Amino acid sequence: MASVRFGEVVEGYAVPVLNEREIRAAAGILFVATFLSLLFILFDNNFLPIKFVIPVFLADILVRVFVSPRFAPTLIVGRLIVGNQTPEYVAAEPKRLAWMIGIALASMMFVLMVVMNTYSIITGLTCLVCLIFLFFEAAFGICLGCKFYKLVYRREPQLCPGEVCDVRTRDPITRTSAAQLLVVVATIALVVAAAFTLTETFAKPARALFPEKAAASAKH
Questions:
Q1: ∠ at Cα 41 (135, 60), nearest 5°?
Q2: Segment 75-100, tens digit of pLDDT
Q3: What is the DSSP string of 20-70?
Q4: φ/ψ of residue 89, rounded to 5
């Protein structure tokens, strides 16, 4: 019996593909939702938002893997957002492996936080890993879960985002000079120095730019 194809067939590509631009947009949506819900926990000890986000997160990637990426809600929204941009086609199979890892992480979160209504260092670290995966995908176009493809399937992936799987020399515009690295180091040093010297100054309570309006609002 023939296996069910995962991904889309596009003329000119030897393997089924997905649109990396849609995937990055969807990762950004999930990252923002997860990050904001974690802020509620950190600053207000409010676990309600995360208990809504986790089931949506889990259901979304379950649909991607076991139904079709074209019906995953966040990927649909991502397509609406980047629909006018030229597609960036990447191989579908490595993405499926990455999403299966996401299913494992999200399932653990669902059982521990939603079903059992608990929190621990396990849920904290799992959330952190999910955020790192989503951030790297959305911000840099780096699929960390896809890095395991070669280990699992014992073959080289094809059509990686940014053509990183292809053996080629780096274009001059992508190379980093010693002077550029020095700029980064100097920036970090300035930030660290500012943290030690300006903390007391920056810690002063902010004052109203318009004191009269602030006083009137306080009375009401």
A1: 45
A2: 999 999 999 999 999 999 999 999 99
A3: HHHHHHHHHHHHHHHHHHHHHHHHH---HHHHHHHHHHHHHHHHHHHT-GG
A4: -80, 135
Q: Please name which of 82, 83, 89, 30 lies closest in space to residue 61, comparing C-alpha atoms.
A: 30
pLDDT computed for residue 199 by the predictor: 87
Pick from 74, 118, 94, 77: nearest CA to 15: 94
Give per-residue pLDDT as tens, 29-65. Answer: 999 999 999 999 999 999 999 999 999 999 999 999 9
Entry pTM: 0.83
Which domain, by its residues, includes 30? Answer: 17-172
- Asked if 100 and 154 sit in the same domain, the reply is yes
Residues 79, 19: contact at Cβ < 8 Å?
A: yes
Q: How confident is the model at residue 162, as a pLDDT?
A: 65
Where does the chain have alpha helices with state H? 20-44, 48-66, 73-82, 92-109, 121-135, 149-153, 178-197, 199-202, 211-219
Shared domain for 83 and 102, answered yes or no, is yes
Residue written as token pair 């596009």? 10
The end-to-end CA distance of the chain, in Å, is: 72
Q: Are 161 and 198 in a shared domain?
A: no
